[in-house]
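Hi R.,

As promised on Friday, here is the backbone we talked about, encoded as structure tokens. Could you run it through your design pipeline when you get a chance and send me back a sequence?
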């Protein structure tokens, strides 16, 4: 029996029907399957501003197929507006609230199936986590990237604006140039066209089989996206009739397909957190060793910004996720089902690489391994990650003295104040899930290094995380974090740090005896919060090495 039948059908449910009718629904609508349309529209973020019209198109498709849409809102704590500030602490923790919100609304209103419209770094994994938790028929339609802005013939990506701050300070561009960067970055609604976390997670969701083919890279608010929205609305009724739920579509092999696709397109490091969190809800084991194993034999095929010159919209017009999967060949499991009704193999058989400059052939890849490297060593016993495709080749081996900062703001001030010298390792700690709390992105610090021309000589090491727009030699997710007693909390000014991406190692060149002496003397940092959600989050969140999840 459908959930909505129990919720709204029969004489005994007249009071519940009266409430829905009070919102304008008619009796006949309540007799039909009830499809939740989960929208994260808000009017102050470009990746969400267009989602009203996309939701309307989804609802049209649902009605065409004989269903009744019930739209409700999730939310998006906007990364781009929170970067390099205290507000960034609230972004990652919002993922768990999005998942909880969708669960509560879907269960509380007897919904039969869901079409989800996420667009934002934590909204996509949050909604997908809810999809696995609820196990209702579900289609995810990602809100999509915008086309890159252009200023004086130069393509603009989000990192250009951040790095432009340092370029103004160095006299390389004017303040008016930077203002033009601001004004021209978003020509239309949608996520910025880099391999940001939102775009990365959209592509991962398609590769998992939870979105219709090609839809994760469609430009936001385009007519193409509106048509895809109608087809998604129509298709969800078929999934409901056939009782095809996420648990019948997604398994360990699906996650491996998705991780390989993300590796191949230079995806955001944040995937390491989110894929683990999504897999946990799906009952699938994914850990840092999974990423390490898959990275070693998955070639990087597309140098998507900030790892290269191409945007996500370029990837779309080059063939999108299906073309990437086709080029990956026997690395992809083709037998898996998807929400489209086709298997992965059937989708891939109809795909074509339309621009081999954007999607390189597997025989001549951008690099022979995936973009995400997992490092381990005495500085990160539980592991850490780096986007290798964004690191200058001369920085793949590095040894240098540590410059230690207890937060991102102090590090940024030192970088712009020219107090960080070539050959040094900038260590930013107490920015992990517990210590932050909230595990802020260090985009402000990475952009400062690039903007000040230090990205080929200074290594950044942190227990915080990185935006998909970050580039340069930046190692993050150091685990255990400082707040959990990790070795990063014991680093002192001048300690030698050795990193070798070829060998996947990161070591603090200090004796264990000396580290033990420091542990005895160490005074824990006081918590930055004493009340509210972040206090709860800091007390319960798991390590970044296991996805920074809450006990659910």
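Update: got your reply. Pasting your designed sequence below so it's all in one thread:
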């Amino acid at each position: 029996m459908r959930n909505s039948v129990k919720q709204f059908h029969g004489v005994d449910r007249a009071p519940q029907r009266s409430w829905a009718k009070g919102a304008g629904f008619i009796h006949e609508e309540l007799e039909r399957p009830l499809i939740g349309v989960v929208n994260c529209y808000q009017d102050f973020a470009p990746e969400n501003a267009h989602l009203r019209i996309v939701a309307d198109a989804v609802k049209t498709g649902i009605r065409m197929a004989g269903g009744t849409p019930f739209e409700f809102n999730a939310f998006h704590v906007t990364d781009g507006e929170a970067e390099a500030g205290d507000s960034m602490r609230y972004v990652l923790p919002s993922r768990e609230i999005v998942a909880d919100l969708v669960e509560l609304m879907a269960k509380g209103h007897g919904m039969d199936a869901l079409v989800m419209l996420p667009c934002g770094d934590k909204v996509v994994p949050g909604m997908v986590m809810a999809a696995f938790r609820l196990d209702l028929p579900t289609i995810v339609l990602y809100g999509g990237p915008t086309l890159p802005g252009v200023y004086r013939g130069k393509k603009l990506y989000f990192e250009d604006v951040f790095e432009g701050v340092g370029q103004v300070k160095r006299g390389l561009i004017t303040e008016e140039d930077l203002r033009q960067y601001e004004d021209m970055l978003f020509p239309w609604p949608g996520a910025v066209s880099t391999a940001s976390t939102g775009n990365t997670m959209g592509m991962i969701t398609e590769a998992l089989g939870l979105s219709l083919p090609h839809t994760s890279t469609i430009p936001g608010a385009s007519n193409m996206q509106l048509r895809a929205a109608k087809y998604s609305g129509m298709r969800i009724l078929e999934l409901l009739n056939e009782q095809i739920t996420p648990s019948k579509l997604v398994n360990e092999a699906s996650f491996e397909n998705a991780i390989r696709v993300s590796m191949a397109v230079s995806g955001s490091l944040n995937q390491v957190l989110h894929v683990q969190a999504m897999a946990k809800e799906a009952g699938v084991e994914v850990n840092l060793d999974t990423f390490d194993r898959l990275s070693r034999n998955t070639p990087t095929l597309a140098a998507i910004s900030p790892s290269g010159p191409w945007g996500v919209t370029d990837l779309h017009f080059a063939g999108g996720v299906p073309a990437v999967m086709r080029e990956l060949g026997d690395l992809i499991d083709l037998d898996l089902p998807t929400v489209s009704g086709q298997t992965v193999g059937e989708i891939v058989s109809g795909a074509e690489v339309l621009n081999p400059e954007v999607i390189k052939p597997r025989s001549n890849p951008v690099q022979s391994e995936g973009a995400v490297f997992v490092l381990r060593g005495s500085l990160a016993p539980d592991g850490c990650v780096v986007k290798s495709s964004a690191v200058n080749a001369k920085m793949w081996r590095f040894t240098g003295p540590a410059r230690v900062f207890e937060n991102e703001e102090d590090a940024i001030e030192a970088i712009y104040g020219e107090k960080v010298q070539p050959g040094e390792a900038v260590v930013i700690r107490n920015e992990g899930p517990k210590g932050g709390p909230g595990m802020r992105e260090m985009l402000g610090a990475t952009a400062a290094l690039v903007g000040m021309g230090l990205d080929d000589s200074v290594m950044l090491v942190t227990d915080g995380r990185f935006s998909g727009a970050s580039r340069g030699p930046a190692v993050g997710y150091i685990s255990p974090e400082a707040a959990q007693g990790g070795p990063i909390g014991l680093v002192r000014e001048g300690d030698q740090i050795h990193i070798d991406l070829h060998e996947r190692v990161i070591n603090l060149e200090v004796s264990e005896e000396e580290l033990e002496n420091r542990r005895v003397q160490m005074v824990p940092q006081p918590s930055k919060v004493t009340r509210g959600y972040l206090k709860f989050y800091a007390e319960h969140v798991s390590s970044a090495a296991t996805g920074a999840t809450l006990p659910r």
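One thing I noticed while checking it: The longest strand covers residues 397-405.

Thanks again,
M.
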